[in-house]
Design goal:
With 406 residues, the chain is α+β, with helices and mostly antiparallel strands. The protein folds into 3 domains: 10-77, Uridine Diphospho-n-acetylenolpyruvylglucosamine Reductase, domain 2; 88-200, Uridine Diphospho-n-acetylenolpyruvylglucosamine Reductase, domain 3 (2-Layer Sandwich), CATH 3.30.465; 204-373, Vanillyl-alcohol Oxidase, Chain A, domain 3 (3-Layer(aba) Sandwich). 27% of the residues lie in helices and 23% in strands. The protein has helices at residues 35-48, 100-108, 126-132, 139-142, 145-148, 177-181, 214-218, 220-223, 226-229, 263-277, 286-299, 349-356, 372-375, 380-393; strands at residues 13-14, 28-30, 52-55, 72-75, 82-86, 91-95, 112-113, 149-155, 161-165, 190-197, 199-200, 204-212, 233-238, 253-261, 282-284, 306-311, 331-334, 339-342, 361-367. The strands form 4 sheets. The chain has an 8-stranded antiparallel sheet, sandwiched between helices. The two termini are 23 Å apart. Mean pLDDT is 88; it is low at 241-248.
Length: 406
């Protein structure tokens, strides 16, 4: 017998066709207006055996997933209030359906910076960025979302609402469940509100762009001075990572170095970089810098299939083992952050992930290719721990994203 939808409040129903994943369209899509309505929906779904997927802007949800079941799409974008903002303490609490761009504009008006980077922030929600633990070129400078979250209110799969952490930096109460939820991709609980630590906006920003050949990329000594300067980001952009043409002239790669600090230190960083690498082909500031920074964040999620890797190596020369590959230029490498996004055309994502595993890069995500668990080498003990967490928090398998790779 199929699960019943009778327990759901269909007064919040929206068109389910916009929420299809893989070959499945949900039987119903709901857009609740409050955390209480989210909890009530989860309670009904849990009680009636329904499989539910939480939605933010959908910018990071892999629509190629094969879900075991999918009955309810839960659109959280109506939860978009700024609950509390303390500019003096550099903290805020926000409902997790708020768009990243909207929140960033609120804090930038006070000379502060939201330390969340995301592709397509006009669509991405705060909850989505936290749930994916998403980051961009400045991950080393800003930290990952789990490093910036102070606390959260969230709903478990059975509708129970809980809270972890607090609203201030000096908080040591309880277990840091809010950090566990960062990266869980909506498979353990649904984030309702989050408290975040902000940063003061830097006085000066500048980006220097250098074309580079494969030989220059592989020259380790050319880049070894960069980590000591602590730039905001160092990104290697392939000549054709997403089919949009060359990154810098006719060169195979562009190396883009971002600087953010007080004006005197940025000027000194720029002087040292030019002394080591020569004059850049372009230097960007102000609005052009912001536009470039966002384009680099977008480029890391520009298409599928995509394999994302992490690495402890922090300079462009880390790409040396990949330069022989015929698809080497289809990449975005945030070198200072140790994040590589590779866009294979013909290669199977699983084979590619295992090929890369021995070159200093560890695959952590596959989109639009082979299923995640089969593509990423993972120890049996880690897989068992994940299974036990999911089963303990969601025995009825209500949050179906948590079981999409079983």
């Amino acid at each position: 017998m199929s699960a019943s939808l009778a327990g759901l409040d269909v007064s919040r129903a929206v068109d389910p066709s916009a929420y299809a994943i893989g070959d499945r369209t949900p039987r119903v899509a709901l857009r609740p207006a409050s955390g209480a309505e989210v909890a009530a929906t989860l309670d009904a779904a849990h009680r009636d055996g329904l499989a539910l997927v939480p939605w933010g802007g959908g910018s990071r949800l892999d629509r190629s997933l094969s879900l075991p079941r999918y009955d309810v799409a839960l659109d959280l974008t109506a939860l978009d209030r700024l609950v509390e903002y303390d500019p003096e303490d550099l903290t805020l609490t926000v409902e997790c359906g708020m768009r990243v761009t909207a929140l960033a504009e609120r804090v930038s008006a006070r000379g502060q910076e939201l330390p969340l980077e995301s592709a397509h922030p006009d669509r991405a929600t705060v909850g989505g960025v936290l749930a994916t633990n998403d980051s961009g070129p400045r991950r080393l400078r800003l930290g990952a979302p789990r490093d910036r979250i102070l606390g959260a209110r969230f709903a478990l799969a059975d509708g129970t609402v809980a809270r972890s952490g607090g609203k201030v930096v000096k908080n040591v109460a309880g277990l840091a469940v809010h950090r566990l939820l960062c990266g869980s991709r909506g498979g353990l609980a649904i984030l309702l509100e989050a408290s975040l630590k902000l940063l003061p906006a830097p006085e000066e920003r500048a980006a220097l762009i250098y074309p580079a050949t494969p030989e220059q990329i592989a020259e380790a000594g050319r880049w070894e001075f960069l980590p000591r300067l602590e730039p905001a980001f160092v990104t290697v952009l392939g000549a054709n990572p997403n089919g949009n043409g060359p990154a810098a002239g006719d060169s195979a790669f562009a190396v883009i170095i971002g600087l953010e600090d007080d004006a005197a230190w940025v000027a000194e960083q720029e002087r040292r970089i030019v002394g080591a690498l020569g004059a850049p082909v372009a230097g960007l500031r102000d609005a052009e810098y912001a536009q470039l920074l966002q384009s680099l964040a977008d480029a890391g999620h520009a298409g599928a299939p995509r394999v994302t890797f992490t690495s402890a190596h922090k300079t462009p020369a880390a790409l040396t083992p990949l330069l022989h590959h015929r698809e080497a230029t289809r990449l975005v490498f945030h070198a200072a952050a140790g994040r590589l996004h590779w866009f294979p055309v013909d290669a199977d994502a699983r084979d590619l992930a295992h090929e890369m595993f021995g070159t200093g890069f560890t695959p952590i995500e596959v989109a639009g290719g082979a299923r995640l668990e089969s593509a990423i080498p993972t120890e049996a003990g880690v897989l068992e721990l994940r299974r036990r967490l999911r089963e303990a928090l969601d025995p009825n398998r209500t949050l179906t994203l948590g079981f999409s790779t079983d």
